[in-house]
Here is the input.
Amino acid sequence: MATISSLGVGTGLDLESIVTGLMDLERQPLDRLESKQSIINAQISAYGSFKSKLDSFQTAMASLASASSFKVFQANSQDEDLFTATSSSSASAGSYNIDVTQVASRDKLASSAFTDYNSIVGEGTLSISVGSESFDVTIDSGNSSLAGIRTAINNASDNTGVTASIITDDSGARLVLTSNETGTENAISVSVSGDSDGNNTDTSGLSAFVYSSGGTENLSSISTAKDAIVNIDGFTTTSSSNSIANAIDGVTLNVKDVGSSTLDITRNDEAILESVNEFASAYNALMTEIKSQRSGQLEADSTLLTIERQVRDVFNSGASITGSSFSYLVEAGISFDKNGVMTVDEDKVNEVLSSDFNSFANLFSAEGEGFANRLESLADTWLQTDGLIDSREEGLNSRLKRMDSQKEQMEARLEMTETRLRAQYAAMDTLVSSLQSQGNYLISQLSALNSK
Here is the structure.
């Protein structure tokens, strides 16, 4: 008898549906496991969103968590055509008389005119010094034109700080050497050895580029290297650069022109107020995220409950704070409305900043006591490796791995079960089909006997 290739073909019974139904029952434990995996994956995703809010919260707390956070100053020049200034956290409020008597400049030297940039100059070795450092450039038949010398200087691997260019005017093409940095310490000098015309100092051949201030000057000076000289409240400061750092503690002056004006360093209360608003926004965003997650994927999650409790404990502590006459944020203009949303009274904050700045700063930043300082420390513990969030995520991922292993075992058992069921029903189908054939044969034989 031919082998039955599809269940039920031999008997006409819907054996395929029977096996499918039985396998659906067998798959129910696997379906429940996959449902649990989906829930855990959703929880891990929820923790990712929550961690992002914690990161923002930590950043906002850090902006007010230390005394240096309140050392926010702005530098104002009364004449920005003469100089501008920037200030750092180490600056102090004050006013300074600034007299710029000299602006730093670069050394710039130009050669006499050649016919054009292809003009052949000569061969030999150029020794170019920028201050106390020098480098050599070999000039031969391959680079002895004005353009070739320019390129050789610029491409020298040990170039110590000079740029060569060519300027063409009505008289012809001139090689121009410019120091890359300002100041007398970057003055340029040029000497020549092995000039192909036999003279290392005359105005022909390669020696046409010889220059030593006060000595042989075959190049003409377009501008002379100078230092910036600035008088600050009667005290003179000299700098090779027009950017003068820490002549005034925590302040960088950027000199532009000669003249006198005033520099005012003032505390930037607007920046501090902005940080306070960010503090409130970050707190509100964190509480909103906790509320959202507790009504969603992380319902009744103990980690969220712990974080919320720890945050509220900080705000409800009301302990005295070193260096501050305040114990609560509300005393400095930061309060909570009836819905628990933190709000900032900007007028009150500005008033306190003006009247009792140190108390305000310590209210947030006192080590181990200030509100922002304590909250930043908490956020650090939540987000650190093996911290509260990391441990929770690790636990969820471990559960997923165990479930993956269980899933593989279940799928293997299901495959074996389906193979067994199909074999059993195929055997039954074959047997029943065989019996039906035998029965039909007997009936036909009996019918034939009866007809005789």
User: Anything to note?
Assistant: The longest helix spans residues 388-450.
